[in-house]
Design brief:
Length: about 70
């Protein structure tokens, strides 16, 4: 059984283009981070990219959560 929050996320995925875009971006950042994590050694540039990607991934997650919260209180 899914929680009310999960149900709202599913509804937003089906109906809200902004949420869909953010979800795709979040998945893209996660995939890029996985690729960096698979490397034994990161160059200085790759380390900076890893930090940048983590921040972007967190930002998109926060934006998705804000949309979920708005839907809950509406």
């Amino acid at each position: 059984m899914s929680s009310p929050t999960e149900a709202i996320r599913e509804q937003l995925m089906a109906t809200n283009q902004e949420f869909q875009r953010l979800h795709e971006e979040h998945a893209h950042y996660a995939a890029q981070l996985d690729e960096l994590a698979s490397k034994t050694y990161l160059t200085e540039q790759e380390q900076l990219e890893e930090v940048r990607l983590k921040k972007l991934k967190l930002w998109t997650k926060d934006q998705m959560q804000m949309l979920v919260h708005r839907a809950q209180v509406a």
